[in-house]
Structure formats: C-alpha cells, structure tokens
Amino acid sequence: MKLIMDFKADWHETLKEIMKSAWDLDTKAITEDVPVHYFNAAQRRITATPRNILVSDTFHCPAEHLQGWEQIKRSVIEGRDLNPHLSKRIGKVKKTDLLLSDWGVHHLHLGTELEGRYTARTGPLLFARVTADNFYAIDVYTHDDFEDADIVEVVHRNWPESIEHWALRGMQSKETLTSDQRKTLRKKRYNSFVQVNDGTTYAPIGGGYVFSGHSIFAITEMDRSEERRV
Q: N or C: fewer beta carbons within 10 Å in the chain?
C-alpha cells in the first residue's frame, strides 16, 4: 500500500479551520493563497492581551463618546477583546485594511453597546497603533481622515522610537502628497512614502501592499512559514 502525504494541503486546511472556528470567517471562497488570507486576517485583528496605554499630546475625545473611550481603555488594560470595536470588514476574509497596511494604524468605533458581533458604529473613530505591549492612542478622527498625514505626524512626534525602523535615513520627498492624492494611490495599491514636519520620511509603517491588494506583511509571513516547513 502506497501512502501519499500532502503536508502543504494539510497546513492550508488547518489555517482555514482556525479562520473558521476561532475567527468565525467564511472560508468557502478561498481556493488559493490560503496562508496570505490567513495572515491578512490575523494582522487586521487585535490579539486580546493586557497592554500599556500611551496617549498622544493632542488626543481629544468628543464628550459624547467619552464612555466608549473609557470602555476601550478598560479593555486594553485588562486584555479583553477589542475586535468588536473594529470595522465589520474583519468578518470578511478577503477584505483588506489599507490604513493598517499603509501606516500600521487600526481604527476603532467608540460605541458602547453590542449590535450583533460588533459595538454600535460611530462617526468619530479612535485611531491607534497597537503592538504586543502597547496601545498608542493617536487621536479621534472621522471616516474622511484615513489619508491625513497628521496621523503619522502625531505618532512621530510622540513615539518616534516606535516607528524608527521605517524611517528612511538621508532621504526626503520633493513634494508632499495631499490626502486626495494618497487616497488615489491607495485605491490603485501604489505604495508611497510620508514626510513629517521635521523632514523625516517614512516607508509604509504597516508594511505596504501589492497590486492584488494583499498586504506585504501577509505575504512575508506566508514565505517565512513555508520556509520553516521545508
């Protein structure tokens, strides 16, 4: 009797099962690039673990959403699930978050009551950079501010050491992109640099994306995982 073992196919099925059982994602539409979709979904979610909260020097939450902000703070400190505050698109396995892929920034809704799996949607959004140990509260913005370079400016001014890995030494842009120009580039999946007020220029802090829309982080993680399995 001849046994045929397909470790790669087994690994892909394992990843699909995690997405389905742990994250409640519908994986039926995934017929290829399974690891890319897995790592993309993982990047878009926030792992539940206690974190330190750091608040920027210009942070301001509208009075009508202070309760939501307090709820998020408690969840961060206690290590509770923050994913109900994220975009409903985290429930769509093939969706990507261009703000996250470009600048490494999550946006969270400030609602306090659950409406199904997610908290009530709000116009104002909390923008935050989230690492394994820290929750950097940048500010409260709107849905029209996703391409506003002030987001990176605030992170650079308050916590430059947290993003110094992406700083381009000895390089400055000749022109500054407008929010509309950056929005167009993101739609076309073109990566771009961002220059802050003191002249520091950053490569995509979230890793960037490719023309297919997949995040470079997801592709890199897939390659690393496959190399380890060889």
A: N
Q: Supply the DSSP string of 90-153, one letter for each residue.
A: GGSTT---HHHHHH--EEEE---SEETTEEPP-SSEEEEEE-SSEEEEEEEE-TT-TT-THHHH
Task: Report the candidate in 114, 58, 37, 121 with the shortest Cα–Cα distance to residue 87.
Answer: 121
Between CA 59 and CA 81 the distance in angstroms is 23
- Give alpha helix (H) positions in the chain: 7-21, 34-44, 66-78, 98-103, 150-158, 179-187, 216-229
pLDDT band at 226 (very low <50, low <70, confident <90, very high): low
pTM of the model: 0.91
Q: Is a pLDDT exceeding 80 seen at residue 35?
A: yes
Residues near 4 by Cβ (< 8 Å), separated by ≥ 6? none
Tokens coding 188: 């076309």
Output phi, psi for 22, to 5 deg.
-85, -35
In Å, what is the CA distance from 101 to each residue of 71, 96, 191, 205? 26, 8, 10, 8
